[in-house]
Amino acid sequence: MKALVYQGPGKKALEDRPMPEVSAPTDAVVRITRTTICGTDLHILKGDVPTCEPGRILGHEGVGIVEKVGAGVSTFKPGDHVLISCISACGKCEYCRKGMYSHCTTGGWILGNRIDGTQAEYVRIPHADTSLYRIPEGADEEALVMLSDILPTGFECGVLNGKVQPGDTVAIVGAGPIGLAALLTAQFYSPAEIIMIDLDDNRLAVSKSFGATATVNSANGKAAEAVMKMTNGRGVDTAIEAVGVPATFVICEDIVAPGGTIANVGVHGVKVDLHLERLWSQNITITTRLVDTVTTPMLLKTVQSKKIDPKRLITHRFKLSNILDAYDTFGKAASTHALKVVIEA
Ligand SMILES: NC(=O)c1ccc[n+]([C@@H]2O[C@H](COP(=O)([O-])OP(=O)(O)OC[C@H]3O[C@@H](n4cnc5c(N)ncnc54)[C@H](O)[C@@H]3O)[C@@H](O)[C@H]2O)c1
Ligand SMILES: [Zn+2]
Ligand SMILES: [Zn+2]
Predict the structure, then answer these.
(1) pLDDT for 269
(2) Looking at the structure, do residues 199 and 280 belong to the same domain, yes or no?
(3) CA dist 163 → 153, 254, 294 (Å)
């Protein structure tokens, strides 16, 4: 089968690989119909993710059709259409029993990281009963690719941890796919204001069409001043960090209102200053989270009932044979205006 393989920092190739097999009774092998590329795949290609070794098939998102199941899989059978979660979960360990699937002792984020992933014709899914979701008949499967990772990430790490409430003022720093997913799902709770902050005017324009009430381009280094002015010096109830660099976390520290919450979503590679000399008295909360994908069944219902339309995040489509072009387009988002690229296998 064809598969996109990480060959070490800066190197990747479309290779011929053997078909994956059921190796544990709880495994399923899924024929991928659609997958996509995540910003995290670009981090891996830069060499930022040491757990992902050269030779690994990348990808942790996708939908497909069950090809084979192990003897211990009771929920799925060959032919079932399934959504693949970026997080694999045994459902039995201490963390899974708390709903903290991201820290499953034999799962978590392993797909396209510690084990071969979804940017291929077939993928082996461990703990299939608790890591796959049945796709309802007639669903738009392309839209559901957005539910493998970005929608639950924006919602769980940003909106739920950020405790967005009706009437709140929310700021989201970073208008990439994750920030936009937080923007879409924050609207479940009817906040009064959602301010999007980014360096990219195209992404800010997209944010407006997705429901942002105001946008700020932070290129001049004065985003915090702009937000404080917009909020009459009060700041925001929830500041969602969806970039993963020190400057954007510091913006969140500068704009959080007394009693507010900073919900970190970004993956940080270097240390960030925490200004407790100012914040100690502000009754704020800071949260961090690796997406658990516990809200995937709920999000599936909101997509099915058209409460949200994640298909709007898809800007480009490619065949698996052209996945290198897909990486090129996704990697040059500023000039290609790419958000999510769908790859058809
Ligand atoms: N916590 C989790 O479980 C989890 C899961 C998936 C992804 N993530 C992380 O979420 C973050 C966002 O992911 P994404 O795919 O949307 O990334 P992305 O790179 O596509 O988007 C980031 C956005 O931030 C903007 N940006 C960069 N520097 C900025 C700055 N100084 N000020 C304002 N905006 C700036 C960019 O223009 C871009 O639009 C990443 O760090 C990613 O690794 C976390
Ligand atoms: Zn991802
Ligand atoms: Zn577990």
Answers:
(1) 84
(2) yes
(3) 14, 19, 16
How far does residue 112's CA lie from ligand 2's centre (Å)? Answer: 10
- Neighbouring residues of the ion ligand 2, judged by CB less than 5 Å: 38, 40, 149
Q: Is the CB of 178 under 6 A from ligand 1?
A: yes
- pLDDT, tens digit, for every residue of 151-210? 999 999 999 999 999 999 999 999 999 999 999 999 999 999 999 999 999 999 999 999
Is the minimum distance from the CB of 247 to ligand 1 under 6 angstroms?
A: yes
Q: Are residues 133 and 167 in the same domain?
A: no
* Partner residues linked to 134 by β-bridges: 82
Would strands 340-344 and 28-36 be described as parallel, antiparallel, or unpaired? antiparallel
Which residue lies with its CA nearest to atom 39 of ligand 1?
176
Please name the residues in contact with 27: beta carbons below 8 A apart, sequence gap of 6 or more. Answer: 69, 70, 73, 124, 125, 126, 128
Are 184 and 321 contained in the same domain?
no
Q: Is the CB of 15 under 6 A from ligand 1?
A: no
Residue 221's domain comprises 152-287
One-letter amino acid for residue 46 of the chain: K
Number of domains in the chain: 2
Q: Give the ligand with the smallest distance to the CA of 219.
A: 1
pLDDT tens per residue, range 104-150: 999 999 999 999 999 999 999 999 999 999 999 999 999 999 999 99
| Ligand with smallest separation from the Cα of 176 | 1
Model pTM score: 0.97
Q: Note whether 140 and 222 are same-domain residues.
A: no
Same domain, 313 and 221: no
